[in-house]
């Protein structure tokens, strides 16, 4: 790139060297700052790109990372590179314990998104001293990275949803946190917080605790009914009933990258939920359950219908336990949601593992082994 800008009053393109002469010499320290942060942003994007390419196999996300890297490279001119002075840089000796370890893939990728965004902010501000177009260029690029991060997280959530076999819907319990953690330790990857009667202040506190716990185990966390609560705790999405907020309105509030599920009891409700944009549906209640005391059992026939007609992931739900899960699986279910079977279990970890083992068998039998692999 030939750095400079177009000046209409001076009849054409003004090279960067002339710009320096007109406005005063740019300090070498500014050039060093720009060089370091161009390196930092490009390196962070490359780390993200590698996972988008090889981990997610997503051409669109990896392509956007590559495009951003190439645009950064056009600004990384020889003058900025020449300002580099690594031997005398005190920052090379500075470190933090968190930089020396990454607990999981999610923390690694989040750290690098933060790294890129911080570097672009630095480039935006110091770039104003170097080139008249640099500030606006990096401001625009920074917003593109925010969008990329949102798209990445949305894709990650939906991949996790596809791979989730067992879905725990909570009910009030004195030891709920310990029960949920025990289930997460057993391999659970999807939790919905459901509490119809507790005061909002207490619900908010419980939802925050559960959300943090689920994300600690890299599990998805959804909130029943309440879009406002889901937004407040930064949940991965919501689950809506037939009488709740319309899916379209919830989508407008949550954005395109959060998960929205919907309860259905028959074929008509299923089609309406799918057409409305539900990411997944609940199919049931399969058996009579006190959780849905006002609804008659939909039975295994509706499970068979869902197996044949649902184009989105679906979870059989309602009265499912260790004694009848194989009947539900035989009817065509590959994913199930449970409440009391885990919340009231004496050993939630073992019950969770049993459910997952039964569901894993059917996935392998149906030649879908990828569904039985937990998404990192």
UniProtKB/TrEMBL annotation:
Reactions that this protein is recorded to catalyse: 4-methyl-5-(2-phosphooxyethyl)-thiazole + 4-amino-2-methyl-5-(diphosphooxymethyl)pyrimidine + H(+) = thiamine phosphate + diphosphate; 2-(2-carboxy-4-methylthiazol-5-yl)ethyl phosphate + 4-amino-2-methyl-5-(diphosphooxymethyl)pyrimidine + 2 H(+) = thiamine phosphate + CO2 + diphosphate; 2-[(2R,5Z)-2-carboxy-4-methylthiazol-5(2H)-ylidene]ethyl phosphate + 4-amino-2-methyl-5-(diphosphooxymethyl)pyrimidine + 2 H(+) = thiamine phosphate + CO2 + diphosphate
Source taxon at top rank: Bacteria
A GO MF term: thiamine-phosphate diphosphorylase activity
Domain called Thiamine phosphate synthase/TenI: residue spans: 166-342
Family annotation (InterPro entries): Aldolase_TIM (IPR013785), ThiamineP_synth_sf (IPR036206), ThiamineP_synth_TenI (IPR022998), ThiD2 (IPR041397), TMP_synthase (IPR034291), TMP_synthase_cyanobac_bac (IPR016229)
ThiD2 domain location: 32-150
EC numbers, comma separated: 2.5.1.3
Pfam family, one: TMP-TENI
Regions of compositional bias (Polar residues) in chain numbering: 89-98
Region (Unknown): 1-144
Binding site for Mg(2+): 225, 244
Cofactors required: Mg(2+)
Binding-site residues, 2-[(2R,5Z)-2-carboxy-4-methylthiazol-5(2H)-ylidene]ethyl phosphate: 289-291, 319
Pathway note: Cofactor biosynthesis; thiamine diphosphate biosynthesis; thiamine phosphate from 4-amino-2-methyl-5-diphosphomethylpyrimidine and 4-methyl-5-(2-phosphoethyl)-thiazole: step 1/1
Residue sites binding 4-amino-2-methyl-5-(diphosphooxymethyl)pyrimidine per the record: 192-196, 224, 263, 292
Region of interest called Disordered, as start-end residue ranges on this chain: 80-102
Region (Thiamine-phosphate synthase): 145-376
NCBIfam families: PRK02615.1 (NF002727), thiE (TIGR00693)
PANTHER family hit by this protein: THIAMINE-PHOSPHATE PYROPHOSPHORYLASE, THIAMINE-PHOSPHATE SYNTHASE
Protein name: Thiamine-phosphate synthase
Primary gene name: thiE
């Amino acid at each position: 790139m030939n750095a400079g800008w177009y000046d209409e009053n001076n009849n054409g393109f003004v090279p960067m060297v002339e710009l320096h002469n007109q406005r005063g010499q740019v300090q070498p320290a500014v050039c060093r700052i720009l060089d370091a942060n161009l390196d930092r942003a490009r390196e962070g994007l490359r780390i993200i790109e590698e996972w988008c390419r090889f981990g997610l196999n997503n051409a669109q996300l990896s392509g956007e990372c590559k495009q951003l890297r190439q645009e950064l490279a056009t600004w990384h001119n020889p003058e900025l590179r020449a300002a580099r002075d690594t031997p005398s840089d005190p920052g090379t000796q500075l470190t933090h314990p968190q930089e020396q370890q990454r607990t999981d893939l999610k923390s690694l990728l989040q750290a690098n998104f933060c790294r890129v965004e911080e570097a672009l902010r630095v480039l935006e501000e110091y770039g104003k001293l170097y080139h008249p177009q640099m500030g606006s260029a990096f401001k625009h690029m920074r917003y593109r990275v925010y969008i990329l991060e949102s798209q990445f997280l949305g894709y990650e959530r939906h991949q996790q949803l596809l791979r989730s076999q067992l879905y725990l819907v909570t009910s009030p319990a004195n030891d709920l946190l310990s029960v949920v953690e025990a289930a997460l330790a057993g391999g659970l990857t999807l939790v919905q917080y459901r509490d119809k009667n507790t005061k909002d202040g207490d619900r908010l506190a419980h939802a925050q605790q559960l959300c943090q716990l689920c994300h600690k185990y890299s599990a998805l966390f959804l909130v029943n009914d309440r879009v406002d609560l889901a937004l407040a705790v930064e949940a991965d999405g919501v689950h809506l009933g037939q009488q709740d907020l319309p899916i379209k309105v919830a989508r407008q509030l949550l954005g395109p990258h959060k998960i929205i599920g919907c309860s259905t009891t028959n074929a008509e409700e299923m089609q309406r939920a799918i057409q409305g944009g539900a990411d997944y549906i609940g199919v049931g209640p399969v058996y009579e359950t006190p959780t849905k005391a006002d609804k008659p059992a939909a039975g295994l026939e509706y499970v068979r219908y869902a197996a044949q007609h649902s184009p989105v992931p679906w979870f059989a739900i309602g009265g499912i336990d260790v004694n009848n899960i194989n009947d539900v699986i035989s009817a065509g279910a590959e994913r199930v949601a449970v409440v009391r079977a885990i919340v009231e279990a004496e050993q939630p970890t073992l019950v969770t593992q049993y459910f997952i083992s039964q569901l894993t068998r059917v996935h392998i039998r149906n030649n879908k082994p990828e569904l039985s692999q937990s998404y990192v």
